[in-house]
Amino acid sequence: MRLSHIWNLGIKELRSLGRDPMLLFLIVYVFTAGVYSRATAMPESLHKAPIAIVDEDRSPLSNRIVGAFYPPYFLPPEMITRGEMDAGMDAGRYTFALNIPSGFQRDVLAGRRPAVQLNVDATRMSQAYTGSGYIQTIVAGEVDTFMKSHRAAAKLPVELSLRSRFNPLLDQSWFGAVMEVINNVTLLAIVLTGAALIREREHGTIEHLLVMPVTPFEIMLSKVWTMALVVLAATAFSLLFVVEGALSVPIEGSLPLFLAGTALHLFATTSMGIFLGTVTRSMPQFGLLLMLVLLPLQMLSGGMTPRESMPEMVQYLMMAAPTTHFVSFAQAILFRGAGLAVVWPQFAALAVIGAVLFGFSLGYFRKSLASIG
Amino acid sequence: MSDDKNLGDSPRPAIRLSRVSLAYGKTQALKGVDLEIPAGRMVGLIGPDGVGKSSLFSLIAGARKIQEGRVEVLGGDMADRRHRHEVCPRVSYMPQGLGRNLYATLSVFENVDFFARLFGHGRSERQRRIGELLEATGLAPFADRAAGKLSGGMKQKLGLCCALIHDPDLLLLDEPTTGVDPLSRRQFWELVEGICAERPGMSVLVATAYMEEALRFSWLVAMDGGQVLATGSPQDLLRRTETDSLEEAFIALLPESRRQGYQPVTIPPRQESHDSEIAIEARDLTKRFAAFTAVDHVGFRIGRGEIFGFLGSNGCGKTTTMKMLTGLLPASEGEAWLFGKKVDPHDLETRRRVGYMSQAFSLYSELTVRQNLDLHARLFRLPGDTIPARVDEMAGRFGLTEVIDALPDGLPLGVRQRLSLAVAMIHGPEMLILDEPTSGVDPVARDAFWQIMVDLARKDRVTIFISTHFMNEAERCDRISLMHAGKVLVSDTPQNLKEKRGAASLDEAFIAYLEEAAGAATAESPEPVGAALSLQAPTPPADHGDEARRSGRRWFSLRRMSSYMRREGLELRRDPIRLTLALLGCVILMFVMGYGINMDVEDLTFAVLDRDQTTTSRDYTLSLSGSRYFNERPPLAGYDDLDRRMRAGEISLAIEIPPGFGRDIARGTPVAVGAWIDGAMPQRAETVRGYAQGIHNHWLTSRAREAYGSAAVAGLADIETRFRYNPDNKSLVAMVPAVIPLLLMLIPAILAALSVVREKELGSIVNFYVTPVTRLEFLLGKQIPYVLLAMVSFFMLVLLAVTVFGVPLKGSFLTLTAGALLYVISATAIGLLISTFMKSQIAAIFGTAVLTILPATQFSGMIDPVSSLEGGGALFGQIYPTTYFLIIARGTFSKALHLPDLYASFVPLLIAAPVLILLCAALLRKQER
Question: How far is A315 from chain B (nearest CA, A)?
Answer without folding.
Answer: 10
